[in-house]
Design goal:
The complex is a heterodimer of chains A (351) and B (441). Chain A has 351 residues and is mainly α. Chain A has helices at residues 3-12, 32-54, 57-79, 90-100, 109-124, 136-147, 149-154, 173-176, 181-197, 200-209, 221-233, 240-256, 266-271, 275-282, 293-313, 320-327, 331-337. In chain B, the strands form four sheets. In chain B, strands 1-14-13-17-15-16 form a six-stranded mixed beta sheet. In chain B, strands 2-8-7-4 form a four-stranded antiparallel beta sheet, with no helix packed on it. The relative contact order of chain B is 0.15. Classes of the chains: A mainly alpha (351), B alpha/beta (441). At the A-B interface, α1 and α2 of A face β15, β16, α12 and α13 of B.
Chain lengths: 351, 441
Amino acid sequence: MSKQQETDDQAVSPVGRWKVSLSPHLKSNESVEKIMWTVVACLVPPLVLSVFIFGIQTLFITAVSVISCVIVEAVSQKALGRRVTIKDGSAVLTGMLMAFVIPPGVSPLLPILAAIFAIYIGKHLLGGIGYNFFNPALLGRAFLLASFPVAMTSAWLPPVQDFAIFSYLGTQVDAVATATPLAVMKEHGMAAFTQTFGSGASLYSSFFLGWRPGCIGETSGFLLVLGGLYLMYRGYITWHIPVSLLGTIALLSWIFGGEGYFAGDPLLALLSGGALLGAFYMATDYVTSPSNKISQIVFGIGIGALTVLIRLKGGYPEGICYAILLMNPLSTVLDSFFKPQRFAPPVGGAK
Amino acid sequence: MKSLLTFPKGGVHPPECKAQTQGLAIETMPVPDELELILGQHIGAPCTPTVAKRADVGEGGLIGEVTKGLGVPLHAPIAGKIKDIGMSVHPIRVSAPSITIAVDREAQPVQYEKQNWQQLDSAQLLAKVHEAGIIGIGGAGFPTHVKLKPPANSPVDTLILNGAECEPYITADHRVMLEQAASVVEGARIILKILGIKKCFIGIESNKPDAIAEMTKTAEQASSPDCTIKVEALQVKYPQGSEKQLIQAVTGRKVPAGALPSAVGVVVQNVGTAKAIFDAVVYGKPLYEKVVTISGKGIGRPANLQVKIGTKLKDIVDYLGGLQPGLSKIIMGGPMMGFAVSSLEVPVTKTTSAVLFLTEDEIDTRPHGQCIRCGWCLEACPMGLEPKEIAIYVEARRAEDTAQFGVFDCFECGSCSYVCPAKRPLVQFVRLAKMKAKRPQ
């Protein structure tokens, strides 16, 4: 029976084939798909910019990461007998975020391995979307950091000059590798840092725009913040996690980050490393962050504090990845601790 | 301008969809050949028929009453012959006992005479409300005479008439307030007298400025030093018309979980119920007809229709130009809390406020996915609950453990499901939870 016939038939039939389901019958036009693709769209400008900072291979690495995440998602869902939901954009988003937190000079094989670990083990073996308690993209990064420590901590590229986006193709990474600002600061101190990256307004502006060594998508602070603000405007994220997280990093870096107390540079702390990417896109991941607003603030403060602790006292120059991963499993704990306020308790106390 | 009153926590803004019918005057539908009156229209025990098959009944004649337990009598909406005492299609209970009346086309309509109610005392007025078979016709269907007799240990000082009409599409109360403002306000004065109190607020959402103006004018004329009736404009926000949310918006008082509004000194009545009380007390006319909004793209012509209780949907559809292609869902009540029905044999009851014929593009039929813990339902819930947790527990077959999440506070407004980006049927999960969980004592 054709679709047209079916509707005509239905229009005249006294006992129709109308849908029956429980209320509400209206739903908002938001959907998981729409959210995921919007976030993906917000990550496109930083990705495009990364091409002009680190060269065309960032696009290649990101493509490999996205495609392998989508394939692993489809295969995992098929293998586990679940509905294949690659169209919802969540695997694409994971792939993109995962590429954003790896150095621009690594082999494109790395994201493939990371995708298998992050999507299959980190997401689908735990129950699929909604049930993974670690951020899959960061899990992928942590896996790579543990498995390929040399590549993951040394394949940094200095920003290209004069839009020579093909200049790194075919060159040996070792020949051009540099160090990230946080690594320079950690290993050689503030003096060496100033010598390498400069100081004052030009330092802040070049860091804010993204012209510094770092992971593929973490450097362009301006575009990341812009995208984050757009997500807030759309209501997809709220200020609670980014503000508490960045505020904590700024405050603790100011207090403990310099020589003596209250001598650190809070602005530099926010503009270096993956603080902005983490605050707006990683820590706000719905599944792995708390739902309650108070828990979100505590969550953000926790990540900020752990980040500064790792940056200043830990073995790695940057700590936000592990800080988020450490706080992720606490989300549900925080949510069960800070309950939303019920309308009114029964007479004679709760329950 | 004074800021509009509302409840502070939660709520959603579904599309209002009232433009189709808000400008249409109430239209009386011709009586169909047959009416089917369900015996259990109210909360409580269903009526027992007081008439036998093939008996003749007059308009407004008693056909059913409740002898034991909570309930109100049922009246014949029109003169006719009892054709059958059997079963009807019911939107929730699948089928329910009912009385079928074959309409007598020859009978003259009853002329009701205006009576003076001022010298009647509270108990006499209350008896009239009971005898007229009045229940909360806004949707809940709780017998009104019980609601108007609050327990002695909780003194009531405020009456609130609910004219919020926050459900999308529905405009029946809007038209009643606009066209019958004097009756509604007089109804409010009768209720004030029954309760022995002096203060009444009428809460109306600000998307009905004409009704607010008309009601304000009428209420001011009716107010006197010992009886103040005041119209309060409310913010347009669903579920503004929920009893607890309305009380909080208007008085700032919070009804405790598991308690009645009288616990905070308030009685709430729907504006339509106030009109029914007016009819019962001033004209002695029982509740047997009501204004129902018929809307949606799936019906030939939308309308605010005054119909007899017991009119079947198929008669309404015939009268309004038939079903339209693309009809996907028929809903009795509003789209947020109403019930989908699968048959046009369903009759209108005292609590039917609307019948919506919605097409594919007006409803959402996307399949639901897993919870992504976005927390939007926490923001939307006006009761401060965690719908996502309840749903996850139900999915994990632990419905009996959901009392800790306050599942019994939920009045199933559907705000959580409305905002859920994964399209999860959270209200359905909550209902399952309520069946399994143990109600806290």
